Amino acid sequence: MSKATVLNVLHECQDRWVSLRGLATRTALGAESLRLELRHLEQAGYSLEHHPRYGYRLRGVPDRLLPDEIQMGLQTSIIGRDILTYEEIDSTMDAARAMAEKGAREGTCVFAEFQRRGRGRVNRRWLCPRYKGLLVSIILRPKMPYERVRLLSGTVAVAVAEAIRDELGLEALIKWPNDVLINNKKTCGILVEAETPKGRGAYFLVGIGLNANLSRKELPREVIYPATSLLIELGRPVDRIAMARAVLQHLDKWYRRLKDGDYKGIKERWVQLSPIIGHRALVEEEGVEYTGRIIDLSTTGGVIMELDTGHRKTLRW
Question: H-helix or E-strand containing 273?
């Protein structure tokens, strides 16, 4: 039996004592194997209380993105089928790519507590202190028309914004194409990379970097857009495990809608969460700059502008 089985029993009992015999019955483990599993839990950072007469009870869960904890109660059908967490890694995107090339299942999630070479869009470096963020890359294998591919980025942004809104009650919005803002400050960056290996089906890697429990002093300084974190906006630390679970569940919901072809529904929610609609902007496409007023987003993931020349044009990043 796995450690998760012992963990499930302790979680189900919550603050109640469970005897060693009771644990052995529920897990089908012998006394020595059971003690070994309990020792492994303590080594992983779980706080267990032991009483010679009453047995064990769970008193605390470590502030770590542990796969067993994220998957416990996770209600998804695609996202989070397999979850791995690295204490430290060069890049979750690189790790996810290597796994995808070896045939990892769609929905596989690769978390990291710290990235040595994390990156965002246009190869900008993404920095986040250890144990303070939500850093994950997800393998997706959608079958959809090429012209809809850019909509995947908006789909992920909608999912993250809604997870923050539902889980924490914060008014998260989307800065086109896919940055998530709170109070006009960036709290989450999203990176989508497409891979088309020869002789095999295309797949996508979705990278999410969410500033969870960073203090003001820990926020990145050399950034184009002002940054913030969930801790700063909420006024207290967030449960990173619960937040990870919320993000995966919302992404699962919106990704299934994308796979079902609900492009209009995704675009409408994207528009609702985008404060740029109706505002003037400068957008660059293939080295050419366009200025005008943004009037809508398209179901292909582009932005529709009413240019200063009087023409309307759909632009893509």
Answer: none
